User: Fold these one by one.
Assistant:
Number 1:
Amino acid sequence: MIIRTIEWSPDTPAHLTPGSVVMVDQTLLPGELTYLRIRDVQSVWRAIQTLQVRGAPAIGIAAAMGVTVAIQALPETTTGELTSAALQAADYLATSRPTAVNLFWALDRMRGVIRASGALPPHEFKNRLARESMTIRDEDAAMCRAIGRHGAELLRDGDTVLTHCNAGGLATAEYGTALAPIYVATSQNKHIHVYADETRPLLQGARLTAWELMQAGVDVTLICDNMAAHVMKTKTINAVMVGADRIAANGDTANKIGTYGLAVLAKAHGIPFYVLAPSSTFDLSLDSGARIPIEERAAEEITMGFGKRTAPEGVKTYSPAFDVTPGGLITAIVCEKGILAPPFQTTLQSLLLI
Ligand code: MRU
């Protein structure tokens, strides 16, 4: 079953109903597979902030569609007014989450289209933005397929992969990044077993990765994050595969908190550590990961997870949502263009020329 995480639903032919964003509400999984239909930019912002839609590529697509939805119901008086509203929406959506660069990449791409479309009549302008956000979605789906094909070359029949957070179909348009090679390898009749870290505090591994792998018939075993070292020592793990939220020019990679620890553990156990991400996740304007902004989340996410108090009221907390894995701990970065080996300083730059 292929789950389409987020889509643009165009307006009706007679323009009676404006276009809308349709997305899986990921906060309800694994209990319910429910789709939200969103018709205003504030709700898109909230969906990104509250992780109803999450995962770097998916929030980029959501942001692009958020810009589009912001102008759908506006009167078609002048394109100038629509242009200002769309640019304002882009600036607003940029405040929703700070770490995944895909969000800013998608908004920049929409800004480019907005500025280049000023001569279009208002209705055409609206359609142009809708088409661009659908293209961003479709390109993401194609990039994930390609990542899957390249990444599957790293997997043999019988391999066991450990993954963290959710870098599957739910984190992208469809298919995923870190999980894509597992889907491709499975379709090639390779048996792949996956250990999924539960991924405290919001349990993307338990709620989302375990769910989507089971839906796809992949052999998955759920573990708590603090079991990874023991599992690496006592079981055979052939590879760690994770996604990314932002990759700097030297290969330093921001991903869900806990990823850095896994990379250290993988090194200690001689296990290859692969990062899988589309080129929309590269931020070559940053020379190193030290400059990647790290989101801090509300204390309640670790003291009152899912509504149950698990820490004393008033306790001090620190809750970074991401960490940065040094490029030196990464065996290879797999993107839609192929498998990049160290030194990433050189291989990532040369990617720009392809
Ligand atoms: O806070 P989240 O759930 O948005 O964090 C997501 C991750 O860290 C993913 O691993 C990353 O975005 C890659 S998704 C293909």
Number 2:
Amino acid sequence: MHIIGNYEERLSNFNWNISEKELGYKPGDNINIGWYCSDRICNMGKGDKLALIWEGLGGKEKRYTYNDIRQYSNSIGNFLQGLGVKPEERVCLFLDRIPELYIGFLGILKIGAIAQPLFSAFGEESLHVRLENAETTAIITQKKHLGKVRRIVANLPHLRNIIVVDDNAKSPLQDMEVAFNMDESERIDKFEIYPTKAESPSVLHYTSGTTGMPKGVKHVHYSLISQYLTAQWVLDLKENDIYWCTADPGWVTGTSYGIIGAWASGVTQCVNDIGFSADAWYRFIEKHKISVWYSAPTAIRSLMKAGEKVVMNYDLSSLRHLASVGEPLNAEAVIWSEKVFGLPFHDSYWQTETGSIMISNYPGMRIKPGSMGKPFPGIEAAILNQNTYEPIPVGQAGLIGFRPGWPSMMRMYWNNEETYKAKFVNGWYIPGDRAYIDQDGYFWFIGRDDDIINTGGHLVSPFEVESALIEHPAVAESAVVSKPDFVNMEVVKAFVTLKTGYTADEEMELQIMNFIRKKLSPLAMPQEIEFVNGLPKTRSGKIMRRILKAQEWGEEIGDTSSLEDD
Ligand code: PRX
């Protein structure tokens, strides 16, 4: 069991080997996340404990013990090996939130391959760029998503195997496709887990950049050291907790804490694949007696919108600790949750690249609503001047900087060393966010330092949306910015100029929307297209999104001396 202590105590005595010791790991040992999340828990005598309670649409429910997830992940690993999947090859999980996604993740890691989870809502173009970039060799998917895979397979020379987990054999599979039914597969009890080491690659998550293609963030098995300890100290996971992480594993929260941190801690976790509604969510908490809940500001604001009355219809007394991640958690949301649940949401800040929670409000710590809290022990964080990259005094706004060296830091952007290196300046890792620190050492988020839009916790590159827009024959130019929204905090808005001969009307908007829908992930879709006669530009012709964004947010436009300049 982990040591109970307060933040200051933990800070002064901190060493990452606290986590290593709790996990029984010594430098140089093999370390495999798949083993830690299943076999180790069974070896501790908890094989019969529930690892996963899953609920799908129509009240469908499945339950898996730690012994089940150990054996089934072996079965999946064995099946992949049989197909010829080799260590360090990328295996994509293109699945809804079904048990195969969670258990398959462990299976991939157990054979030393790299798990590449992608949102099943992705359209074929979003899927294609990520599989092409990663040179993925196998993809695990469902019948319902097979059409998307089939349409791009000819353009993916590295892809060799398509594994369909819910095939009922009624319609024939095609070349390269093979069925695998996990629940009916032979349970494999003894399996030789690939001897991965601390620096062996484990997970590849794609995240949007300001320019260019999405970047593949490469993590290693040693990330477990950070993920385990933060799950214990920040999410406060304890032996008897029933835990619910609402994030999809297509997003880093869904793997770092929706799989790894949770199962390495041996708790029972609940997953649902039923979509959002306040009633459905509260019923889920009541039914499974969820005690620890890790969610996101957009979900919390959606619950706020549904109102307080609906909360009264459910017994939510099992809840013990609430945490949130992904976007600014506004003070009102913290105060609201305290009022209706009797518990505040604890904000936490981190990134795909950091692999684990960096700044957060700890259990027991005084929460200042609206603040992200304090750095995790072992994390050196500062606010830096944006020109000199030197730390600046308390109270001043600047760039967040982290001193590199924590276990779960990304090891590389896939095939993109240049962009990776550019993230480190003056000995600091620069996540690209602006904040300030107050007199008490609390961090306050200000905003991103680039044009990336964070809509409902999902990062959208304006460049990607603009590129999709200008492929439409009627579009001359476009600029994509965020506009305010109560639930998602920001949503995507596109400004478009049309080529001569085209009419700016509702039908054109609909036509363009339908056109880009095929290219973009649903999360990146603009909520609105505004047709304009011209876009603000610098003298050299660079579109100034900043001006349009300020307009949308009703802010001062600021220094426009460069409007016609560079
Ligand atoms: O801008 C910050 C915002 O989300 C970015 C990271 O997004 P992603 O890599 O998709 O990972 C999100 C889940 C770990 C950050 O650079 N962000 C994340 N958490 C917070 C936040 N912004 C404000 N407050 C937060 N708590």
